[in-house]
Amino acid sequence: MCEYCGCQSLETIDELTQEHDEVVRLISHLRPARREGGTVRMAEVAREIARVLGPHTVVEEHGLFPALAGDFPDQIAALEAEHRRIEAVLAEAADGMPADPAWPERLMEAMAMLRDHILKEQDGVFPAALANLSTEEWEVVEATRAKAGSTLFRPAA
Ligand SMILES: [Fe+2]
Q1: 50: Cβ–Cβ under 8 A, 6 or more apart, which residues?
Q2: pLDDT digits (tens, 9 = 90+) for 58-102
Q3: Which residues have CB atoms below 5 A from the ion given as ligand 1?
């Protein structure tokens, strides 16, 4: 590995931000999906969102958040609680169309929360990480990413 210059931390945050962008793009498909394909199509989009969020959430919770939880315990706990709520609603579509007739509405509510959540991370967590994490902590984040993988295109290291 090259001597640490900080460029890796920017790449790491950039990758998390690109995943957020992809999730926001997919969320924007939900309304037309609901109109044109109903709950079946919404469930497909929900599975796509869950697929992007899988490795993303691992990198945040096992790499980034532990390094910030000491200074920002309440904020990190609240973000993790939101992850669980979002995952739970998405998971209902994991095996097909959810039977609960209230699911489409609950999904839309959860996705509105997810958009706010993404803004909180990008305006709060990511700048705090760039300002506060040590080289060793960034290496933990990167190792977590290497294990978790990514749904985005990653150039060979
Ligand atoms: Fe995130």
Answers
A1: 87, 90, 91, 93, 94
A2: 999 999 999 999 999 999 999 999 999 999 999 999 999 999 999
A3: 121
